[in-house]
Amino acid sequence: MKKDVPILQVNNLKTYFNTPRGVLKAVDDVSFYLNRGETLGIVGESGCGKSVTCNSVMRLVQTPPGEYAGGEILFDGQDVLKMPKKKLLELRGSRIAMIFQEPMAALNPVYTIGDQMREALRLHMTISKREADERVLELLKLVRIPNAEKIMRSHPFTLSGGMRQRVVIAMAMACEPDILIADEPTTALDVTIQAQILNLMKKLKEERNTSILFITHDLAVISECADRVMVMYAGKVCESAPTKELIRNACHPYTVGLIGSKPNPKEMGSRLRTIPGNVPSLLKKPSGCPFHPRCSECTGRCKEEFPPVTEIAPGHTVACWKYVKQEDGSHE
Amino acid sequence: MSKYVIRRLLLMIPTMIAVIFIVFSILSFIPGDPGRMILGIAAPQEAVDMFNHNLGLDRPFIVRFLDYVGGIFLRFDFGESYRNSIPVIDEIMMRFPTTFRLAVFGVISVVILGVPLGILAAIRRSTITDASITVYAMFLTAIPGFWFGMILMYFFALKLKWVPVFGVSEWKGYILPIITMAVPGSSGLIRLTRVTMLETVNQEYIKTARAKGAPEAIVIWKHALKNAVLPIINSIGLSFSGLLGGTVVIETIFSIEGIGKYIMTSIGARDIPAVMACTIILAGIFCVIVLLIDLIYAFIDPRIRAKFSS
Questions:
Q1: Which architecture, in CATH terms, is B95-309?
Q2: What residues does each domain of chain B span?
Q3: Which residues on chain A place their C-beta less than 8 Å from a C-beta of chain B?
Q4: Which residues of B touch A180 (CB under 8 A)?
Q5: How much is the pLDDT for B120?
Q6: What is the ipTM of this complex?
Q7: E-strand stretches of A189-244
């Protein structure tokens, strides 16, 4: 499975926020890797640490109040967290780029689309304004924006949400990054536009062999486009597996619940299934496995200690005592 | 865009007529007979009536009003002062350049002192820098202008003799009044700049700019400031028009013959033409400044520009 060296390797990342009410452990000991040309989906409910994980990868978390309390983020072998500021700026936008959840808010309202896209290019390349203009047109056409010349001269407020998200994607693709981080890129869009944007991203990935880190809370979206999926809960990774394997053979009770909560047309008319209880506050995280208060299979041990990560099939890891017991202590 | 400007300029005419009407009627109906005021209690009633007749004050209200408006719009004539029979517009124009210079340099100093500190506090939020700037701004708010002015005068004019004690006959005379105006005045702008910058740097597009790899200087000065600047400009414009109305305290401390003191003495003397003229002229200046602020808004923010052109 892990034949070539992953482009991104995150080891034991801890991103905390110091708030007046205590330390908020938004990302607590998270490890994952991303191969070249691969799409890794990160799924979880709101507030589970998905976005903070992604922001950490680009070191975009505001410090203070945020704090990188531990771990490393190896991009192409270099630790992003220890990089000098200048190197980090070179990395951002040029080798790792990001697409945000709210296309309405992600573009600066007082500059034209052209201004903002040219900036993305000229921050990393020494090209003339005319060359930049040509490249911008090319990029806008790449994301299938009609009337690219006109759009270039327009301000963001004149465009629809779908159009703006295309612009954001085009801007992210400007320097042909190795990794594209997409933080819920389709959540704020209509379903039809969603499909278009997903197809667009798929195509870009195939054409340019870009790795994508895809964050969403929508399992349908993830099964559509991710090669592998990582499920997060309360700042922890609870399960990670190739997409098909995960959908077919979900192991962690939380993943099972998440898949079970998806509306199923066959069960029309019956009540929608939910996971009982609420996402815990990250300030008052339950002891042991944070999911234990909502888990139907909770045992005494779950309340005391976070389970070790267990590999139950090739590439399929889960952090749950249920599986540790079965294999009687064997772990990765 | 130019259509919009012309429309706004034309709209100023009815606005000004309304202002004149309100000012004129209030001052016409307040108790106190001008003739009696000027000639004194001992004067015989016939003399008072004669005086009022000569000034045309015994004519009906509407006639006097139209006469007054006509005078302003056709001849820029605001009537004569009750005190010395000099046309009030001459009195005002004599004092206006001083007040104008004070206001211009005052506002420039307020901006220089206020905006950078506000930005600094915002980008260093929740640090010791931010806390110190906030405390400093609060401290400035609490300083009474007259006290600050007198302290400055004591040290720099009386002790060190760097600047004249009073008057603005030489340029050095402007220094202390401007500092007295600007230092306490900047506190509001510090806090406003800090708050609007804080709001702006939390916007998603700031994160986009950072994610593009833009250095912090570009993020703040290019992406954040242009978005945060609108309320700041609004506040600067309004404080400028406030300063043009004169600052009585400062003019009094530093013995400056400015508009503020003129208005105060005119009110004290019930010199109604002078009070009316000042009020109307200041209202006109205010209208022009508000229009300028709106135009700057449109220049900076394309969304507002789009609204104007439609």
A1: Orthogonal Bundle (1.10)
A2: 16-75, 95-309
A3: 58, 60, 64-65, 89-94, 97-98, 100, 102, 105-112, 119-120, 123-124, 155, 157-158, 168, 171
A4: none
A5: 94
A6: 0.83
A7: 211-216, 228-233, 236-242
